C-alpha cells in the first residue's frame, strides 16, 4: 500500500527516505498504476532509485505536483492518532496534504514560502555572525507576508469545511450524542498587514535565535471535546474517535471537491480500533472504493476481493 500511495501522491506516508521503498538487494523499483474514471483512463508510473521519476501515460513529468490529484486517495493508518496527540507539525502536515491533493497551486505556494523562509533564516544568521545590514530583511518579510496570507486563507477555508462536518461524523461514530466536538484554527495573524507587523516585531528575537519564529509555519489547529483539548484531556478512545472523525471529514470534503469518490486506503487500521468503532467506521464508508491491508482475517458485511501477500508476491484468494 505504501508504494501505491507513493505513485499517486508523490511520496511515501511511512518511509523517510526514497531508498527505503526499494527491495533489499535491488537498486531500484518501478510501480505502475492503471486507472479508469468516469471521464478518462490512464496510467501512472514511478521509477525510484537515487531519486523519484514519474510518468503519466509514459510521458515523463518534470514536477511531482503534476501527478497529484490525478487519482485522489484518502489514507488512514494507526499512526494517524498522532494528528491529535502530537505537536503542531503533525497537524499542519495533515491539513497541507489534504489541501495539496485538491489544489495543486497550494503546493507551489508552500514551496515558495519554504524557500523564502530558508533564505530569510540564512540571512538572519549572517546578520548575527557577519554584521550584515538588518534592513535587507524587508525584502523577505514582504514576500513571506504575501505567501503567509495566501496559505492562511487556504487553511482557514478547509478548517471551516471540516468544522461544518465534524460534529455530524463524530455522532455517527460514537452514537452517544453526549460529546461535543469542535475544531479551531490557531494563527497569530489574520491578514497580510498583521503577518508583516509580526515579522517586524520579532526581528530582534529572530536575529538572536537565527531563525524565523512567526509565520504560518507555526500555525496549528486544535480539536476540542466538550470544550477541552482532546490532545491533553481526551482519553485514548476519544483521541482515536476524533482521528476517525477527521478522516471521514476529509473523505467527504474530497468527494465534494472533485465530484467523484476518492479511493480510501486503510493500512492495518483494524488492529487499533475496538469492535464498536470499527463497525461504525465501516458503516460510514460504504459506497467508496476501499483497499484494506491487515495481518488477520476480518469480517466485512459487503462484497470484496481478497489477496494474500507473501515475500512481495500478491496472490488472489
Task: Give a description of the structure.
By secondary structure, the protein is of the alpha+beta class. It has helices spanning 2-9, 82-85, 88-102, 104-130, 137-174, 192-201, 203-209, 230-233, 236-258, 275-283; strands at 29-36, 41-48, 52-56, 59-60, 73-76, 181-186, 220-225, 228-229, 263-267, 289-293, 307-310, 313-316. The chain starts with a helix and ends with a strand. Strand 2 and strand 3 (52-56) form a beta hairpin. The strands form 4 sheets. The protein has a 4-stranded antiparallel sheet with strand order 1-2-3-4, covered by helices on one side.
What distance lies between the first and last C-alpha atoms, to the nearest angstrom?
Answer: 18 Å
* Rg of Cα set: 22 Å
Largest sheet data: 4 strands, antiparallel
Biggest β-sheet: strands ordered side by side in the sheet: 1-2-3-4
How much of the sequence lies in strands comes to: 15-25%
Provide the structure class: alpha+beta
Low-confidence stretches: none
Give the number of helices: 10
Order of helices and strands: HEEEEEHHHHEHHEEHHEHEEE
Shape: globular
Mean pLDDT: 89
Oligomer: single chain
Number of strands: 12
Helix content: 40-55%
Amino acid at each position: 500500500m505504501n508504494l501505491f500511495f507513493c505513485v499517486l501522491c508523490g511520496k511515501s506516508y511511512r518511509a523517510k527516505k526514497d531508498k527505503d521503498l526499494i527491495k533489499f538487494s535491488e537498486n531500484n523499483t518501478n510501480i505502475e498504476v492503471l486507472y479508469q474514471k468516469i471521464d478518462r483512463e490512464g496510467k501512472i508510473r514511478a521509477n525510484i532509485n537515487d531519486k523519484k521519476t514519474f510518468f503519466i501515460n509514459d510521458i515523463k513529468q518534470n514536477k511531482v505536483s503534476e501527478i497529484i490529484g490525478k487519482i485522489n486517495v484518502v489514507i488512514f493508518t494507526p499512526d494517524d492518532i498522532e494528528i491529535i496527540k502530537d505537536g503542531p507539525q503533525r497537524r499542519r502536515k495533515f491539513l497541507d496534504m489534504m489541501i495539496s491533493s485538491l489544489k495543486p497551486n497550494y503546493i507551489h505556494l508552500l514551496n515558495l514560502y519554504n524557500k523564502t523562509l530558508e533564505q530569510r533564516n540564512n540571512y538572519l544568521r549572517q546578520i548575527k555572525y557577519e554584521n550584515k545590514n538588518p534592513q535587507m530583511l524587508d525584502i523577505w518579510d514582504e514576500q513571506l507576508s504575501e505567501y503567509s496570507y495566501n496559505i492562511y486563507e487556504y487553511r482557514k477555508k478547509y478548517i471551516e469545511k471540516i468544522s461544518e462536518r465534524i460534529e455530524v461524523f463524530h455522532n455517527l461514530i460514537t452514537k452517544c450524542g453526549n460529546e461535543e466536538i469542535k475544531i479551531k484554527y490557531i494563527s497569530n495573524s489574520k491578514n497580510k498587514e498583521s503577518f508583516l507587523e509580526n515579522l517586524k516585531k520579532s526581528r530582534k528575537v529572530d536575529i538572536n535565535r537565527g531563525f524565523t519564529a512567526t509565520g504560518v509555519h507555526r500555525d496549528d489547529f486544535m480539536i476540542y471535546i466538550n470544550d477541552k483539548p482532546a490532545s491533553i484531556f481526551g482519553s485514548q478512545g476519544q483521541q482515536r474517535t476524533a482521528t476517525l472523525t477527521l478522516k471521514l471529514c476529509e473523505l467527504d470534503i474530497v468527494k465534494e471537491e472533485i465530484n467523484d469518490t476518492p479511493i480510501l486506503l486503510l493500512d492495518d487500521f483494524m488492529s487499533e480500533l475496538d469492535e464498536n468503532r470499527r463497525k461504525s467506521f465501516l458503516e460510514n464508508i460504504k459506497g467508496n472504493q476501499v483497499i484494506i491491508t491487515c495481518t488477520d482475517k476480518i469480517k466485512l458485511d459487503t462484497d470484496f476481493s481478497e489477496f494474500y501477500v507473501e515475500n512481495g508476491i500478491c496472490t488472489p484468494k
